[in-house]
Amino acid sequence: MTQSASSSTPDSxxxxxxxxxxxxxxxxxxxxxxVRRKAEFARVFEAxxxxxxxxxxxxxxxxxxxxxxGLAVSRKVDPRAVRRNRIKRILREAFRQLRPRLxxxxxxxxxxxxxxxxxxxxxxxxxxxxxxxxGALPALDRLGTMPAATxxxxxxxxxxxxxxxxxxxx
Length: 170
Known about the structure:
Structural class: alpha+beta
Largest sheet: 4 strands, mixed
Strand content: 5-15%
CATH topology of the domain at 29-134: Ribosomal Protein S5, domain 2
Strand order of the largest sheet: 1-2-4-3
C-alpha cells in the first residue's frame, strides 16, 4: 500500500510551514550610471587622468554628464569568473554609495592582480583613496563631530561681560 506522490507534496509554501520573506528590494545600477561603449572606454583611457595603487587603477575623464562607472577586470586578475564578479560587485557598490558626492565624468576602474586577494574593505578604501587623489571626491571637513557653533550665545556688545553658568545675578 503506497500513497500517491501528489497527496504528500505540498501545493504552496503555506502548506509546508515555510514563511516566505518579503522580496528583497534591489537598488539597481542604472544604465545612465555606466560607461558601456568601447568608444567611451577608449576616450577615457586616452584623454582621462590616471592614478593607481597596487590593487586598482582609476581613469577619470571629466565631462558634463553624471558620474558614470566602467569596470575592467580581466582573467589575468583571476581566472575564475566568480571571483572577478565579486570584485566588480564590491567596486560597483562602493561607487554607487560615493556617486552623489563625485564630480561629473566617466570613471573607469581597472582591477589589478592584487584585487583578487583583497577583501571588500580594502577595495572600498582603495577606490575612495584613488578618487580623493585624482580630485574627483572632495575631502570631508574633519573639524570634529560637533556642528559649527552659532553666535547666538555670544553677547551683542563685545565690551559687555560674558555670562555663563558660573556667573551669578547680583
